[in-house]
Amino acid sequence: MNSIHDMGGMHGFGAIPIDENEPVFHDEWEGKTVAMRIAMNAWRKWNIDMARHTVERFSPGEYLGMSYYERWITSLADMLVEADLVSLAEIANGRAGPGEKQTPPLTADAVPVMIKNGRPSARELDISARFQVGAAVRTNTDNPTGHTRLPRYARGRTGEIVICHGAHVFPDASAHGGGDAPQHLYAVRFSARELWGNSAEPKNSVILDLWESYLNNA
Amino acid sequence: MNKPDHDHHHHGSATHSLLPSDPALRVKAIETILLEKGLVDPDALDALIDTFQNKVGPRNGAQAVAKAWTDPEFKAWLLDDASAALSSLGFTGMQGEHMVAVENTEAVHNMVVCTLCSCYPWPVLGLPPQWYKSEAYRSRVVIEPRAVLEEFGVSLPEGTEIRVWDSTAEIRYLVIPMQLEGTEGLNEAELAERVSRDSMVGAAL
What we know:
The structure holds two protein chains of two kinds.
Chain A: H1 28-41, H2 48-56, H3 60-65, H4 68-82, H5 88-93, H6 111-117, E1 136-139, E2 158-168, H7 171-174, E3 183-191, H8 192-196, E4 205-211, E5 215-217
Antiparallel strand pairs in A: 1-2, 1-5, 2-3, 3-4
Chain B: H1 13-18, H2 23-37, H3 42-55, H4 58-70, H5 72-80, H6 82-87, E1 98-103, E2 108-113, H7 122-125, H8 130-133, H9 135-140, H10 145-151, E3 161-166, E4 171-176, H11 188-194
Parallel strand pairs in B: 1-4, 2-3
Helix pairs in contact in B: 4-5, 4-11
């Protein structure tokens, strides 16, 4: 979807906020937020694509008005309600309603293994890759209203395949309950001038990881 | 509750309007509900916080870079199959399942961004700093990388090519910076001390 999260190439955001002595967490609630997000992943009620799409659906004003971890905790609340793990009444009261206490799937001793294993997105796929390194490709010009990982600034542009990453879960499907629907994934290099016009430096480039169905023969 | 009306068109906004607006209170409310319902284990939350506070971080990436600088075979492996090479050092897992390493040279300077969210290689660098997640960095580095580098105090020679890697999938990128001048003869551990977090994202040398 064409929302505020897709900000590559936008103007007006000012200077980079560089803080050389930044702590990992600025406040205790930030650490709690990260921990709850990861712990709740163990219920497997949603995937990373759904989680990203939940933030993308914030209104632009709301998105920009929140700090990074405010987005995380707020989108966690959305997902808890959408997955029927927590009710709106419970959110309103800030307390659990009546009901049997459940058993969390993630215990402290299982945390290192969970972190170590991660959740690989690579998948086996019988279909061979349509493009090889060096191929010229042109990206779609579509404007999907759902989740997509083809940013606006790279739509309808011609680039060159520089890495074939193998097949990976396709976020546009996975974010909407469409399963893994794996596709071949490629690193595609676009010259800065192709993306930004003639004021860009001629030698520079931007490389994006793009799924096969985003790409066409150039 | 302090939420403008236009939010109500959006999915999830019913939830947002019910939450406390102060972030610390918002987190406390969610935490209370999750603990009372038995949806999270409080010890698991502590273990997760400890992991990101103390166990993963840019010292891991620095160790890998220093090894690449001193061990040509490891460097070749890192450039050929970063996931396997990093895994051999114990750096693998969540948000670093699929790694690619890119090397800075006199001719080419690499930078990493996630314009759509905040993708970052956790096993080697830890959680991303504020600047990496900022609207300013995400919007600007793809369109004016040299100006962004100047803000970090980095002036590259005019002829240096800049490649910006936008992490739009689950592939995570690690920049191998050029070995700093004057560090010849240092051992691997000493070199690791000199590798900065920002240099492994391409925002420093």
